[in-house]
Request: fold
Amino acid sequence: MLPGLGADAVVVTPAHQFPLGVTMAPSRRSELLAWARDAGAFVIEDDYDGELRYDRQPVGSLQSLDAGRVIYAGTTSKSLAAALRIGWLAVPPQLMDSLVDAGRQISAWPSSLDQIALARIIEAANPGKGPDRASFSSCHCLEPARCHVGPAAAQPPAR
Reply:
């Protein structure tokens, strides 16, 4: 279906698809990533509730399978507090400059105090490791002074 659309990107929730909660099958994941590579397109992976898996083992992220084609998005909205309005993206390196420019134009920043508090919560849960699910190869914030998370791992972990 996707090859005929001429799309540059697609948004998916592979860990828990709305509204039925189905997990995207491995074969469909492979097909989706092959389409993205062939089309030169991007997959935006919205992992809106990946950390809320209590009924079974979490599934791996698409981003862990192809970091060059998948933009991984996460948020505290479901797991901690929607009012924090803090989210994150792990983006392919070729998109970083465009993302930083767009962020500067929008100028919509969460409170620095909220960011510091979240960083402390993450650090307390993972002493010395920094954030787990929100980890990236380096801290690329839109405004470096607002980047309070610190050093991080290579990418969101395969679950």
Residues 130-159 have pLDDT under 50 and may be disordered. The longest strand covers residues 70-75. The longest helix spans residues 26-39.
